[in-house]
Amino acid sequence: MEKLQVQLDKHKASVESQIATPLLVELDADTQDLRASGIESSSYTIGDYLPDAQLLNHLQEPVSLYKLIQGKPAIIKFYRGAWCPYCNLELQAYNQQLQQQPDIPLFAISPEKADQGIHIDNLGFTVLTDENNQFAEKLKLVFTLGENTSRIYEQFGIDLQKSQGNDENRLPIPATFVIDSSGKIVFAHVDADYTKRADIDEVFASYHQVDQD
């Protein structure tokens, strides 16, 4: 199977071939500004303990993340929403892996309302809504979209107000964490560039390491 980042890079190249250069420059400028803000280094990382969170399940019922995890190692993913093709490619890749390893608990979290959520057949992981980015905010993953990106998203029909049910115009940085049975983070990938994601093989290797300890 083709590596996830290869798939993402191909999609990025396809998108860039269809978008005017000035727009690409503006998008890249916002990404660089976000990176320069220090958000990557200030967010939760290896050695930190993941706090519990009250999230919403697919029925929009409040659930405790820790109760779902049940004191076991787990993979925790933050993604932007079903409108994000990079997120969809990533989650599809994880879903394919989980078909072969169905016992691995993975929780995919976004600020997106359940009725706006992802649509993947034979879903092998749990999708949860982080209403108003409250949990991601605790982990210092949240940022407000830059003016350039916000305007361009509107041009392409991306409606965060509809997706999230608020007008805050904020998103979590896509992030992947592996936690051990105590909730300690043993693997972390946080990147201001939403087209870059963790290597799935490394994520699963980290999970299997703590699962065997």
Give a short summary of the structure.
The chain is built from nine helices and nine strands. It is an alpha/beta fold and 213 residues long.
What does this entry look like structurally?
The chain has nine helices and nine strands. 40% of the residues lie in helices and 17% in strands. The protein has one domain (4-212): Glutaredoxin (3-Layer(aba) Sandwich). The strands form three sheets. A five-stranded mixed beta sheet has the order 5-4-3-8-9, with helices on one face. It starts with a helix and ends with a helix. It has helices spanning 4-16, 21-36, 39-42, 65-69, 85-100, 134-138, 147-155, 160-164, 200-212; strands at residues 54-56, 62-64, 74-78, 106-110, 126-129, 142-144, 170-172, 175-179, 185-190. The protein is an alpha/beta fold and 213 residues long.
The general outline is globular
The string of secondary-structure elements, in order, is: HHHEEHEHEEHEHHEEEH
Low-pLDDT sequence parts: none
Q: Class by helix and strand content? A: alpha/beta
Please tell me the overall pLDDT: 93
Attribute tags:
213 residues, alpha/beta, Glutaredoxin, five-stranded mixed beta sheet, 9 helices
